Amino acid sequence: MKIIGPFEQLLSMENMPLRGPIKDEECVVLENAGVLIEHGRVVRVGTFDRLLRDYPTARVEWIEEAAVAVPGLVDAHTHLCFAGSRAMDYCMRMAGKSYQEIAKAGGGILSSVRFTRAASGQELAEGISRRLHFLNTIGVTTCEIKSGYALDKEGELKMLRAIKAVQRRTAAHVVPTFLGAHTCPPEFQDKKAYLQFLIEEVLPVVKEEGLSGRVDIFVEDIAFSVEEARFYLQQAAAKGFHITVHADQFTPGGARLAVELKAQSADHLEASAQEDIAALAASDTVAVVLPGASLGLGIPFAPTRRLLDAGCIVAVASDWNPGSAPMGDLLVQTALLGIYEKLSSAELWAAITYRAAHALGLGQEVGRLQAGFWCDLAVFPTNDHREIWYAQGRMKPWGVWARGERLV
Ligand code: NIG
Ligand code: FE
User: Fold this and answer.
1) Which residues form the Aminodeoxyfutalosine deaminase/Imidazolonepropionase-like composite domain (predicted)?
2) Are residues 46 and 134 in the same domain?
3) Could you read off the pLDDT of 299-348 as tens digits, one per residue?
4) How many angstroms is it from 79 CA to the middle of ligand 2?
């Protein structure tokens, strides 16, 4: 057994609500706290002195400075397995070209596809490790990572195997998602034929090799229609995959499909209308907003305040990818979303901890500091948790633990 502490403040998130608005007073803040752990999991959270007294034989990992501990952060939507750069796309967007125009001209996702197909599995794994390490330094201990930049059988499997290789050598929790349906590759004229190929040729191997338990699709006119996605996702669900949807980024439709199919999450939602919000609120599908994609495209944020007020389960993720969201700094992005969308500090923490964990089906494993959960911690150099948002993401943790082990 080991005790980590003392922390001037510890945000346990225990018993905080799964959906809807949260007032700052509802945020559970323990003072002079510590965490007792065994085999990487939390046994008890409580007053540090009390833990010392009750468990005198436990080893103590002393925190010498003023520190605020929060549950390790959960980034529930990333595309950080890729090769190459899209700096050129970014400059074109700054000069006024739209994301869709660049995509239709053969840039966009397909340009990352060319780079990623040419990369070796090892090169991809190195890129994933480097980016995951950066996320670890900002406190992320659970990270979803999608395939979707190869769009052929061997390349998509290469991506998932690279993700798996990184997963094996990190204490962080890595959740791979199959996004073969990111867009239609040039080899296929017919989108339906491409989806049929994924269903028949690729999904069975993904399943057999245990490479991913989740399937995602980009629902948008530059990718797949609602009807195409419905067919594909139903087939994936029938094979036992959990589903998630890139929904309502530019046009609505995807979020309502996600609700209809009981998806784990509907992600993006920049273009969601009130009826889409109402549908999400009446479901268990998590609304994952991606401020990094708004910042990378120069478009408005998803209507996060309205999603919360309607009663949705709202998570925030980085969407880190080479195209629309190149920054990858979940803390900066969440802080900026908070001030523009008028979110409470408690709503921001919930969105990148236990609510995000719920989007990945890990709501009983990570995202809260309570008995039975993994001991994942992000520890910030301050004595007041409000200072963290006040610094707008500039304050980084000085220590990060995953499964009870120091990661950073
Ligand atoms: O979530 N919108 C679709 N997919 C990614 C972007 C992919 C890319 O531009 O490379 C997203 O924003
Ligand atoms: Fe995305």
Assistant:
1) 33-58
2) no
3) 999 999 999 999 999 999 999 999 999 999 999 999 999 999 999 999 99
4) 6
Count of CB atoms situated within 10 Å of the CB of 58: 17
How does pLDDT run across 353-374, given as a tens digit for each residue?
Answer: 999 999 999 999 999 999 999 9
The encoded tokens of residue 395 equal 């304050």
> 316 by DSSP, 3-state: which?
strand
Same domain, residue pair 84 and 218 = yes
Q: What tokens does 385 get?
A: 């948790």
Of the candidates 339, 379, 333, 340, which has an alpha carbon nearest to the alpha carbon of residue 356?
333
Q: How far is the CA of 321 from the centre of ligand 1 (A)?
A: 7
Q: ipTM of this predicted complex?
A: 0.95
Label residue 107 by pLDDT band (50, 70, 90). Answer: confident
pTM comes to 0.98
Mutate to test the pocket of ligand 1, among 246, 267, 295 (most ligand atoms within 8 A of CB): 246
**Residue that is written with structure tokens 């939390």 in the block:** 42
Q: For the chain, how many structural domains are there in total? A: 2
Between the CA of 105 and the centroid of ligand 1 the distance, in Å, is: 16
Give the residue numbers spanning the domain of 19: 2-71+364-406
